[in-house]
Design a protein that fits this description.
By secondary structure, this protein is an all-alpha fold. The chain has one domain (about 1-140): Protein of unknown function DUF1465 (Helicase, Ruva Protein, domain 3), CATH 1.10.8.930. It contains six helices and no strands. α1 packs antiparallel against α2 and α2 (about 40-70) runs parallel beside α6 (about 105-140).
């Protein structure tokens, strides 16, 4: 259990550090970089900045939910309800910004790192959902007829 807690703490620290770095970039450099770009590129950079924030928001929400599981405040089945699963997959797994050489290098770097983190959490989300499904099946086998009305 302590390895799991350490993993969540490390991953949470990584996500928070990336969020802080993103915040600094968006406040200090993003707007000035977009001023020198063609309007289409500036708009694309703005959209990619929103994708970056969406990825980090989804990851942090997922990590907080699963930290609650490990703290005993919520069970895995509750944590893997559809509204608590990692969201925004269609938006967050889109990679067009990382490959766009017209995007500022720092933004592309942040996008790549956030995508890597999001993908790791997406794998963990799938594993957690599978464990919850297995627990439900086990409970149905252990308590036949439970939930039947």
């Amino acid at each position: 259990m302590s390895a799991t807690v350490e993993f969540f703490d490390r991953t949470m620290m990584e996500a928070m550090a990336l969020l802080a770095e993103t915040r600094r970039y968006l406040i200090d450099r993003s707007e000035s970089e977009r001023k020198g770009m063609p309007i289409e590129t500036g708009l694309a950079a703005s959209m990619e900045s929103m994708r970056l924030v969406a990825r980090l928001t989804q990851v942090l929400a997922w990590l907080l939910t699963h930290r609650a599981v490990h703290a005993g405040e919520m069970n895995l089945i509750e944590a893997t309800r559809p509204d608590r699963r990692l969201g925004g997959r269609e938006l967050c797994l889109n990679t067009q910004g990382e490959d766009d050489v017209d995007m500022p290098e720092e933004l592309r770097n942040l996008l790549g790192r956030s995508l890597s983190l999001y993908r790791r959490i997406a794998r963990l989300d799938e594993q957690a959902a599978q464990r919850a499904t297995d627990q439900l099946r086990k409970n149905e086998l252990t308590y036949p007829g439970k939930g039947a009305s």
